[in-house]
Amino acid sequence: MIDYQALRPRRGTASAVVTINSARKWPGFGLRELFQYRGLLLTFAARDLRVRYRQTVLGVAWILIQPLLVASLFAFVFGQIASMPREPVPRVLLAYAGVLGWNLFSSIVVRGAHSLVGNAALLSKVFFPRELLPFSVVLPALVDLAVSWAMFEVMSISFGVWPPLQGLFLPIWILVVCLLAVGCGLIAGALMVWYRDLVYVVQLAIQLLLYASPIAFSMNSVPERYRALVGVNPLSPLLEAFRWSLLGVGQPSLAVSYPIVLAVVVFVGGLIAFRYLERGFADVI
Predict the structure, then answer these.
(1) For 80, which DSSP code?
(2) Which of 122, 156, 195, 279 is a Cys-bridge partner for 161, taking CB atoms 3.0 to 4.6 Å apart?
(3) Do 164 and 250 meet the contact criterion of CB atoms below 8 Å apart?
(4) Is 37's pLDDT higher than 90?
């Protein structure tokens, strides 16, 4: 592991002196290095936004089309085909609110998992905190969320549902989702350097988690005997909290403390695991 502090020019010297120290027993969290390289972090994030919609016919409009289509499909399947109990708000809005939270999580995890392997040439040539790559996917995901959120509010008002005061709590749920997703992305991205077929595991896990998450229905619609099983999924109470803040339906229970604690644990654990695994990146990337 590289001591990034040692890469800074020493005072009193005519030119920069680069000293690479041996790795410490405790690698630390690396948050100070991330702050020092915040300009590069923003550069990576801006590049991701530019590349994602380059040479596309509809461009940024995909940010609006994708969640709208997914929410409409979920509303049709669960509302018309599955004939689930009616909700206090139009089901398409209920599904759209769930899709907003889900897209934020899945986007950060999937792109974070691919961030290191996708920048293999950069990793082998330039010195910078490797954590920058998984962290850089957060800002584009938040931009997508902001655009989709604006479209959601337009739809809500058109249905006669106005933004509730509970919306003031939405940044808390967004932060929890980001912490959980970044932690998962750090672990998956570091392991994928050694095990490239982990990409299939991540894709399968995300797909299974999608079907196990209450996106188009509330927890009250789940039969009592299955609620504990659905509640094991940390996204379940978070999606309920998203709907409470966006639509004012339902109410977060003490169950929301479970994903909050888990998000902190996964985030810290992801940082520690990443810092230890980072030592071998240059040998196998």
Answers:
(1) I
(2) 156
(3) no
(4) no
